[in-house]
Design goal:
The complex is a heterodimer.
Chain A (H helix, E strand, L loop, with lengths): L1 E4 L5 E4 L5 H11 L4 H24 L1 H4 L3 H21 L10 H21 L15 H4 L7 H18 L2 H12 L4 H8 L3 H21 L11
Antiparallel strand pairs in A: 1-2
Chain B lengths: L2 H10 L7 H17 L4 H4 L1 H9 L1 H15 L5
Helix pairs in contact in B: 2-4, 2-5, 4-5
The chains are: A mainly alpha, B mainly alpha.
Chain lengths: 223, 75
């Protein structure tokens, strides 16, 4: 493996079996002095901006971000992604094409920025613990209420009985209020994995409780 | 089990192979490259596949990155 200084105190590793396009990107971004670096950054920024715009449009129905606001967020995401890519170039180990590795940064920036944007225009009144929303959140058909009424009541009781206060707070926000995970990450200054893990553990506890009380069937091998 | 119970069961189901968001995001580019090349990343990384099935935001990132590298609109 070849080691090279890439500035910012980092060292990039170029694998001998790296595809030519990836190797060219790494080479161009490795030496931060000179025109080649500037041109590579300009080219990469242009691609990142195009991807950010496209991704924000793709998520449009969820985020309701359009027009100049969308373009502003796309510019922010592309700029922050480019900065992260040049700073973390040494982390690129050639496990994928360089472009796939690099584009991941702009996709994650779009996620983070749309999460923050959620609180600028929340879609509903939140925090009211409106349990009437739960059947809809779970995709249950109102016409079949006789099928699910008792089970939903048991689920609601289980939320109060078996979850910790923190698990209950997160579960209510995500499941009942429908707050996006990335929006909670911003509000609570945490990370996506922590919120996901809390909901994961809550679901597991709720299921075990409902099985133990005969509301759901025990399945072999199920957690 | 009726359809409503099945929905609730599905919602509460957790897969012990699920790697969580941190590991999934760490490996996302590798997983997407395999998918873009027509390979079966879920066979090589079942814990990642389990996570993407359960985590909407990470699946959204997967679809977005796949669309970016293939030039095809994602789901």
């Amino acid at each position: 493996m070849e080691q090279r200084d890439v500035g910012h105190g980092c060292t990039a590793t170029a694998r001998p079996d790296q595809d030519p396009e990836s190797a060219a990107w790494v080479a161009a971004l490795s030496d931060t002095r000179g025109r080649r670096y500037e041109e590579a950054c300009e080219r990469l920024h242009a691609v990142l901006l195009r991807i950010a715009r496209s991704e924000l449009r793709r998520r449009g129905s969820d985020t309701r971000i359009t027009g100049p606001e969308l373009d502003d967020l796309a510019h922010q995401a592309a700029a922050d992604a480019l900065l992260a890519i040049t700073r973390k170039l040494a982390d690129f180990r050639g496990e994928s094409r360089f472009t796939t590795w690099a584009y991941r940064f702009v996709i994650l920036e779009v996620s983070a920025k749309t999460g923050r944007h959620f609180w600028r225009r929340p879609t509903e009144t939140l925090g009211a613990e409106d349990w009437d929303r739960l059947p809809d959140r779970l995709g249950l058909d109102p016409a079949r209420e006789t099928q699910w009424r008792d089970l939903v009541r048991a689920l609601r009781e289980a939320v109060d009985e078996v979850l910790t206060p923190h698990q209950r707070q997160v579960f209510l926000a995500v499941v009942v209020d429908g707050v996006p995970l990335d929006a909670l990450v911003t509000q609570w200054n945490t990370n996506r994995n922590a919120v996901y893990k809390t909901v994961f553990d809550a679901r597991r506890k709720l299921r075990a409780h409902l099985v133990a009380h005969g509301h759901l069937e025990r399945k072999a091998g199920a957690s | 089990m009726n359809e409503s119970s099945a929905r609730i069961e599905h919602f509460l189901h957790t897969d012990p192979r699920d790697v969580g968001c941190d590991q999934a995001m760490e490996m996302l580019h590798v997983y997407v490259d395999l998918a873009a090349n027509g390979q079966n990343p879920h066979e090589r990384y079942p814990g990642m596949a389990a996570h993407l099935q359960a985590c909407g935001p990470c699946d959204q990132d997967f679809e977005g990155l796949l669309a970016a590298v293939t030039g095809r609109p994602g789901g």
